[in-house]
């Protein structure tokens, strides 16, 4: 079924102007990556134009030419696409570039672009462009909203055609690394890194390898104890070090194309070096030395905080924890360690300030981590196009004192000259036929890849491309759907958690409103609303979080007057009667925002319903059903949050709307 191919559907194309290129293809290369490129060209020409393309040795006559030119100054993954005299020429310095160039060319054709006279040279800006699957070996997915895992079932690793299709999808947007199991390694007796699973893992990594994607595994820091009964997992203990060295020898020899390990340690109950009085650098470097002989990398997450904190202690602040834990270790990590830092200091909320470790860490390899899975942003029931949010993060100027000081500069390696760096994202895919549950959530997966390749592409351009490839090439349809997507995050923010307040969700599950669900819990995510005020003072007079930024941003955030209003309640505790720049009181803004958000959802729903005869029925119906659920959800948020604040403040709505 074509639509199960997401943006590689290659729907038959009416406009035949690009047909002429697809008569024959020539290449002077062989090997697995080129084979993948040729196969993709075959598939595309058959589906788009109903042509069985011929492989030819006649270089001059070929409609498509794939050639290596080592003198091209394009790096390992870059490519050049040119069109001249009705011939397409894809050139690269290495085969990886040929494969990326092929996909880009095919996607342009499939999107209906005119490529006459094209002359395009591209190089990825981020060296590592990675997906993190949070798939468990029992087949479930942590924060998965698109069905079960297609990697595992009942404790077994599965090698299926879907994995090849996934590799094609990811490669087509430039992804070059993937970790295939949950960062919370909780598989008990079913450990991945044992003889039992090597065969399947080898096959899976082979599939990804054909598409230039290296495979990573998440490991449990305590594996020497849990797997082999060692008395401890102390990173400075010789027996432990030997255990990891031997284990890595085994893993890297059995599984080709291994990139290394992704590790969540000393976080949310996961074991780590703290138990032995060691720090994160001790832990990461021990593993880094074990994978080094095989060219491996350790990606170590910075999502570390005390999840057992006392809500009565007003000075403890979860937002401070990442910086407090890792800043003192800057420069202490081996060169094959990368720190992976979430975009914000708390946890993937609809709006958070940018993590202060960006720009702070100057002597440590680092990657940005975002969440494509919509855990806190609608769980792929509500529409929420996340590319605009990621672009805000990438464009944030850290003020770190270097001429190139944005997050995009830093994670690409431009600022501090790093090679091992880039972007990672928690995947939003599962067994659902459309991959992402909500069809429109496909734009987030596609968008992440495109953005990781080139952070300069606009959110609008990405969404237009994606709609042409996956839903329709019709320009009216593209306009309507992109309008919906481009406003969706703001709408979501309006009816859930405006002004940076965050975390008013149902605990554990994280969908739907529950204003005090986390308020008196140990997880450290508080809004501290009482009858007079709401928000957390994170200025130097409060928890001091604002002081983790360089002065330019610290000055902006620490003062209520200069603080960007969309982050006001993140940084400040503000009375309900406080006047915002609009002239409205804080409480009135909260009421209005929720009503508006709900009304906006109904408008999006009406807009969607106008598409009934213009797009494939199955997509139309599935999304229509999701919009019905989103309308209900936004109504509930509006009612519950407004009632909560009305009852706290007892200040009535100026517009006299019903709030109970
Ligand atoms: C939180 C999720 C939790 C993850 C954690 C993480 O709620 O399921 O394990 O992040 O990133 O957002 O490790």
Automatic annotation (TrEMBL):
Gene Ontology terms: cellular component: extracellular region
Domain Glycosyl hydrolase family 67 catalytic positions: 109-435
Domain Glycosyl hydrolase family 67 C-terminal span(s) in chain numbering: 436-657
Gene Ontology terms describing biological process: xylan catabolic process
Classification via SUPFAM superfamilies: (Trans)glycosidases, beta-N-acetylhexosaminidase-like domain
Catalyzed reaction equations: Hydrolysis of (1->2)-alpha-D-(4-O-methyl)glucuronosyl links in the main chain of hardwood xylans
UniProt GO molecular function: alpha-glucuronidase activity; xylan alpha-1,2-glucuronosidase activity
Domain Alpha glucuronidase N-terminal: 6-105
Enzyme Commission no: 3.2.1.131
Active site: 268, 347, 375
Keyword annotations of the record: Carbohydrate metabolism, Glycosidase, Hydrolase, Polysaccharide degradation, Xylan degradation
Subunit description: Homodimer.
Protein family: Belongs to the glycosyl hydrolase 67 family.
PANTHER family: ALPHA-GLUCURONIDASE A
Name by which UniProt lists this protein: Xylan alpha-1,2-glucuronidase
